[in-house]
């Protein structure tokens, strides 16, 4: 019989009882009363050693499972690892003995995820990107100093940086200000889409990279207040350099961040390329921030702060161009997601849902050339539901997590400080425990019964959704700071694309890999059929 221990966790002084939750973070759901952190005296708690999980080998632990040639899994198969752990061990599983990494504790239960989040520490630590942290705090410490940004950073430095930028980034009016310039960028991209089509009206094999370019151009306009030229037909030397850097970054980041961290001892080719890509981003950001700084008169008065660009607002608030540059760098690193590709794919495979969306879009955009305006953001509930459903099925990041800064009790186990607790949203949000027919693309499940005509008779509409099983933008104080802007970008692109084209996909079912975001493995050979009206 397993040995049991008794832990007294009455006084959880390391945890905050005030959770900072954005008003829009979880919609249409009533959050239950905050989890009571007091466990109570003399409760019997099982030791950490009892947590189920795969056994490691002597000296090398479980690292061999991800090793080339001899391992069970490729590093791109972390989604399959999570699914296998859930199938074999149930709602909680531990993977220990990972050389260079803390233990990973996977929690596959919405209620338990809620409890961990609700006892959030004042300065939550998220297990992410140690090589990026090394880049900021060691390799380029002379540049970053105390302003290390939000990605790969924790503790007081993270908190201080966020305090300087969150007021600007999280206001709803900030995203709305960029609707018009993002509409212009999307119009330029739609012209490129038209030019890309082959004789069969299909898009090229590298369309995923074209979506990266569109996302990069959009981020550049927001974070640097400039057009980079990424969606123009011929581009320019700077845009070609940054596109090459983003391609290099996505090729190397999984190799550097997810494999055994040999970069700490030996600088591999992938690591050197990774650092070079980060340097390219940093230099690009600093160049354009300096240009903005030269144009800015900090002594002038502003009648309405909400009408000026993000860059100018940050510069006026901090008088420090590096803060604006570091924010732009972080937005570039996390903003070139592939949520658009997955949404297009699902709508192309579900023509009835695409037709529902087209009707909604056409009511707002009477012609193919109608500009997307701010008031349309709240007039397309079905479009928003399509995006939510896509992110449920294919979250851009397959799991969230926290690095415990003190001991905790999870699922009745005593979990020690330093453990990485992983919330595998890909698995949980595709589970029959939480969603009826989770394999089906059903945007109506995110709508109230009768909210629109399509949801009036849909059996999926109005069903309660657990608020902690699908969190594509994170939770609490570490919620993605660019969420509002990302949603606006997606709404504009999808409305423009499906207003002009009926989209089909006539090839094999897409499979996905972790790289480190969740991306399709196959070519995105979408067929575009221009609509008559």
UniProtKB/TrEMBL annotation:
Source organism superkingdom: Eukaryota
Keyword Electron transport: no
Keywords: Heme, Iron, Metal-binding, Monooxygenase, Oxidoreductase
Keyword Oxidoreductase belongs to the record: yes
GO cellular component: endoplasmic reticulum membrane
Cofactor needs: heme
Family: Belongs to the cytochrome P450 family.
Role of this protein: May be involved in the metabolism of insect hormones and in the breakdown of synthetic insecticides.
Protein name from the UniProt record: CSON011487 protein
UniProt lineage: Eukaryota, Metazoa, Ecdysozoa, Arthropoda, Hexapoda
Gene expressing this chain: CSON011487
